[in-house]
TrEMBL record:
PROSITE patterns, per database record: ADH_SHORT
Entry superkingdom: Bacteria
UniProt-listed CDD domains: SDR_c (cd05233)
Keyword Protein biosynthesis attributed: no
Species in which this protein is naturally found: Variovorax ginsengisoli
Protein's UniProt name: SDR family oxidoreductase
UniProt entry keywords in alphabetical sequence: Oxidoreductase
Length: 263
């Protein structure tokens, strides 16, 4: 096989993407589908889920709140039914959480962020690992962290705390599962263009008393390449991590961020 062909994911991988109905998750789901994988997504948003499975026949979906263990169990019933097993788990779900000084937060904002961003990683990993152990296709677990899992992020403490925790989970699971041939890596996207980042910039501008455009320029100034990344850049990294070329990559926290220097 020519070396460059080893950059493609294996055909017919069975892939589960959490929170895959829109945003980065949907971009990843479509990318794997186009690469010949069998893709199942779950999401809390019924309308977005219906849109994705209608627009992309072949992708299947389940309604679920990823922070609820019983919902996750039902997703795995669907995974068994639709895919018959699992080769790749992409633990993508994550919410921005509240923005502001820590003393302004009530417990519910903190707890919701931890539930969606971190507890979900545990609920999905513990159900996926027995299936990944049965896989004969170089199984992979990918956890979606963030540049906020590499740098401190003032006024976004719940988010940053969960994203650093995901890196700890990734590195520990890579050690635990490596002997069984399962690779575990985290992707750390930076400033990803799109609706979510527009919202983050607007909230931060409001919290700091700045204009939205001024805030946007401040974000770009922090990036060495002076541009945001796209969801496709993140999806490309996920595809690469599931390709034979990445067969010796595990336990890594990989930034896709144009070299974001500080937050
Ligand atoms: P998004 O806000 O666009 O949401 C994607 C999907 O998550 C939506 O379809 C939504 O319905 C679903 N979702 C939200 N809460 C859910 C829940 N409790 N259960 C099930 N589904 C739920 O998110 P995104 O920007 O695509 O981000 C995806 C991941 O990438 C997250 O983990 C995020 O922290 C990370 N990330 C994003 C950026 C960025 O700039 N967008 C940067 C760094 C890291």
């Amino acid at each position: 096989m020519p070396l460059y062909e080893s950059l493609r994911p294996l055909p017919e991988l069975r892939v589960l993407v959490t929170a895959g109905a829109s945003g980065i998750g949907a971009c990843i789901a479509r990318a794997f589908h186009e690469a010949g994988s069998r893709v199942h997504v779950c999401d809390i948003d019924r309308a977005a889920l219906d849109r994705l499975v209608t627009e992309t026949p072949g992708i299947t979906g389940s309604m679920a709140d990823v922070s609820v263990a019983a919902d996750v169990d039902l997703v795995f019933d669907d995974v068994r039914g639709c895919l018959g097993g699992l080769d790749v788990l992409i633990n993508n779900a994550g919410i921005a959480g509240p923005t502001g000084p820590i003393e302004s937060f009530d417990a519910s904002g903190w707890e919701r962020t931890v539930s969606v961003n971190l507890n979900s990683q545990f609920y999905f990993a513990r159900r996926a690992v027995p299936l990944l152990k049965e896989s004969t296709a170089d199984p992979v677990l990918i956890a979606m962290s963030s540049v906020a899992g590499r740098l401190g992020y003032a006024f976004r403490t719940p988010y940053a705390s969960t994203k650093w925790a995901i890196v700890g989970l990734t590195k520990s699971l890579a050690m635990e599962l490596g002997p069984q041939g399962i690779r575990v890596n985290a992707i750390l996207p930076g400033v990803v263009e799109g609706e979510r980042m527009d919202g983050v910039i607007a909230s931060r501008a409001a919290a700091l008393g700045l204009g939205v455009e001024q805030m946007r320029e401040e974000y770009l100034r922090k990036i060495s390449l002076r541009r945001m990344v796209s969801a496709s850049d993140v999806a490309a990294m996920a595809l690469f991590l599931c390709s034979p070329a990445a067969r010796n990559l595990s336990g890594q926290a990989i930034s896709v961020d144009g070299n974001l220097e500080y937050l």
